[in-house]
Amino acid sequence: MKKLDRIIERAERLLERVEHLLPEAPEPPDWGASTAFRWRRLKGQGQLQAVPRPHRVRMRDLCDIDEQKARVERNTLQFIEGRLANNVLLTGARGTGKSSLVKALLDAHAERGLRVIEVDKDDLMDLPQIIALVEERPERFVLFCDDLSFEEAEPGYKALKSVLDGSVASLPENVLIYATSNRRHLMPEYHDENLQARHVDGEVHPAEAVEEKISLSERFGLWVSFYPFSQDEYLSIVRHWLQVFGLEGAAVEAARQEALQWALLRGSRSGRVAWQFARDYAGRLEGRE
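Now predict its structure.
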């Protein structure tokens, strides 16, 4: 009996030592401090941090992507109102408004309970912890993964895939995942993978490598594609931002040639490049006053 007591005592001491080594459960943030949050790991412990000054983007400042705005906002409103809605994958050309659209949704609908939590690709393994923190809350949470892409065998790939549609536990009804990527299938694709496709009874069956890469993107219920802007669309965005920054009439029209040269030097006619040019041009005019 004494021997058994000693064994139990040693086991209890061992458990106490192990408990000290285990990370503590993450503490919930001050939910009233902000409408936007980031998941960050400090000393190996993940925690939600409120963003004191969220990047505000107005929906009306997103030009020439009206169809994309309408589709994503409709899905988001369904989510806010407690109706069925889909996880969203926004893909396409860089600088065309994918990330800005998510920020604009928060700006437009935060008062209705929408919240955004930014999660880096390296922290996707922590998605179950994040979901556990928010699933009992009354707000509606979009877990936002920006500029998402994976290389072969990255652990975050399978973690996201499982949370989206591959686990026995489903996402709570107050959580959706919105991701942006320049890659439609989120992983690099190679020519030789297509050569491994099989033809069976007249049907084309993709190779296993291709099937695996498609399987993650297919778990997003709503795909929204963004395309490079034409020259006229680029100039329209430049005019919009110059007007936002206080320029009018002739001053706006005088910027046309410089705006085209700016885009040529940058090798892109994206909305981001238009915004950057407008800031530079308006700033230089301010210095001459």
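The two ends are 93 Å apart (CA to CA).
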